[in-house]
Design a protein that fits this description.
- There is one protein chain.
- This protein has about 220 residues and is an all-alpha fold.
- It has two domains: about 80 residues, no CATH class; about 120 residues, no CATH class.
- The chain is about 65% helix and about 5% strand.
- Helix 3 links the parallel strand 1 and strand 2.
- Helix 2 crosses helix 3, helix 5 packs across helix 7 and helix 6 crosses helix 8.
- The longest helix has 24 residues.
- The relative contact order is 0.10.
Length: about 220
Amino acid sequence: MARDCLALYESEKKNLKDSHKGEAIGQAVESCLIQWGIEKVCTITVDNDSSNDTAVAYLKKKISKRNGFILDCEFFHMRCCAHILNLIVKDGMTEVTNSISTIHRVVRYIRSSRSRAQRFKSCVEKERITCKSSLCLDVPTRWNSTYLILEIALKFRKAFERFEEEDALFLTELKEESPYDVDWDNARVLTQFLKTFYEATLRLSGSLYVTSNSYFH
């Protein structure tokens, strides 16, 4: 059902000129409400983009004309809780940007060639690390992928240190920017911090169950 609703909204938005503008977004939502036969509206949830403020203002004007609000529009404009968490986390991560970048460079260096990946695998075996996860790279625009890359990298810390000793080009390629103890410590603390937000985001981003009861009050 959620996918069908999203598909209809996207279809309506494409049919409108300058669909990235707030009023066009509002028109797309209004068109969906009409097609779905929805007469009464309690809440609409959007992220903090300024265009959404315009969209909400447009919808308020249209819905109020037909007396279609529940609870007198008191809870009509709701900010997306998952997006708020996203903004909080991104702001907090700026405190340890250097440590994140350092570990990211090491992972990227190892993943850049099959021979390096094989040597790293050998280091993992020598350190008797039993973790079966694979090193992954994060997506700069998604903090949750940064959480995952750090969580996995921490499990292989000893293998990274051995790799640094055995790979002759390691320090040359990275210009002596391999992770220090403080970088690993920062990563460990950050993953503990991010885990709560990661789990909360997964819970709030569900599409097959009700989520508003998790945060509404």
